[in-house]
Amino acid sequence: MKKLLIIFLLCISVNVFGQNYDEAKVAAYTLPDLLMSVNKKKITTVKDWENIRRPEILSLFEENVYGKMPRQFDNIVFEVKGENKNAMNGKAHLKEVEIAVTSNKKTVRINLILFVPSKIKEPVAAFLLINNRGKENTSPNREVISGFWPAERLIEAGYAIAAFHYSDAAPDNEDTFQNGVLRLYPEQLSAGDGMKAVGAWAWAASRVMDYFKQDKDIDASKVTVVGHSRGGKASLWAAAQDTRFAMCVTNCSGNTGASLSHRRFGETIERINTSFPHWFADNYKKYNSNEKGLPLDQHMLLALVAPRPLYVTNASQDLWADPKGTYLSEKEAEKVYRLYKLTSSLPVSPPAVNMPFVKPPLAYHIREGKHDLTEYDWAQFIKLADNHFGKKK
Ligand code: GTR
């Protein structure tokens, strides 16, 4: 698996796939209009956005990109399998919770790792990471402490910090992705608009939210869903679908995450569907080398997070994820925040490297370095949360 990843990264760096990295070669394109309904009604009010355009856009993404999100299941059971009230040298209360969801006589188990600050007087805001890296990054025993999930720092800042491993919901493999959430919804596998791995990861984030709703330590109205790269595609889809998430972070999510597909800069739809045929609905393959035919683009997904705060990031060396196209996408989404009378403070041109813009509702930074999720990134997410939810402690 590691070998494959190294080969893939090597291919990207020597541009074996022939992707475009030259801004001058980006052909002119027209983005679908965020604020024009299918029946050509101009959307100018929150009411029309929420009643007409938002549901339309959600359906477009279900139909063409991520697949239908199943909402029904027979049963959900939460069981605390492990606990340590003196974790992190007494600073945190660790809970290891199994979330077992049953439908169609099949059960999927999502294993949640959750640290809550010790001695809290009231329920606290929480961050939830969809972990798409090694499980050691979110270790409950803290044998490994990595910037990918700097739980100690979050606890210090007064937040609960949680994670689940994405493979619990859907293994990230084209032959085995169905051995998770999709066992509960087998009909999705043969449907053109059936969800696949990214949909399953987002679905699992919503089940964690179901758990948070009944954990008295957590303020479920203040939960931020966080994802990096493929996990960042899932965090966006989770927040778009499930408005119980109060805030969303999409870190270096690139193609079919936060960046604009119409630009065909860096990774393209054809490339992503070829490398990862198990991520998106089969219908999405119709748009391989046919971005013009897409009735949507990713700015419309970002807009579905409105009016909730959204943090979008890039890394300076990560051209594969198209930083410029990501920023343009976020700027387009401002139109919907404006309907809510929320003014974005993002500058017209992309900010310089390591110059975060952290004011709600729309935050952005491009960090120096490579495609990654680091402690630097988290430090900015904490600032946005402090700003939005009110400083902790
Ligand atoms: C790459 C993929 C990107 C991104 C990344 C990751 O191989 O092309 O879209 O998802 O993986 O998840 O790290």
Give the topology string: H per helix, E per strand.
Answer: HHEHEEEHEHEHEHHEHEH
First-to-last CA distance:
43 Å
Task: Give the count of structural domains.
Answer: 1
Strand content: 15-25%
Q: Quick one: how many beta strands? A: 9
Biggest pleated sheet:
9 strands, mixed
Can you give a write-up of this model?
With 393 residues, the protein is of the alpha/beta class. It has a single domain (32-389), classed as Alpha/Beta hydrolase fold, catalytic domain (Rossmann fold), CATH 3.40.50.1820. Helices cover 30% and strands 20% of the residues. The protein contains 10 helices and 9 strands. The chain has helices at residues 2-13, 46-66, 87-90, 151-156, 197-212, 230-241, 269-275, 298-303, 323-339, 375-389; strands at residues 75-86, 92-103, 106-117, 124-131, 160-165, 218-228, 247-251, 310-315, 362-367. A 9-stranded mixed beta sheet has the order 1-2-3-5-4-6-7-8-9, sandwiched between helices. Helix 6 (230-241) links the parallel strand 6 and strand 7. The longest helix has 21 residues, at 46-66. The model has no long low-confidence stretch (mean pLDDT 96). Bound molecules: beta-D-galactopyranuronic acid. Residues 8, 229-230, 254-255, 267, 272, 275 line the site of beta-D-galactopyranuronic acid. Residues 8, 229-230, 254-255, 267, 272, 275 line the site of beta-D-galactopyranuronic acid (GTR). Residues 1-18 form the signal peptide.
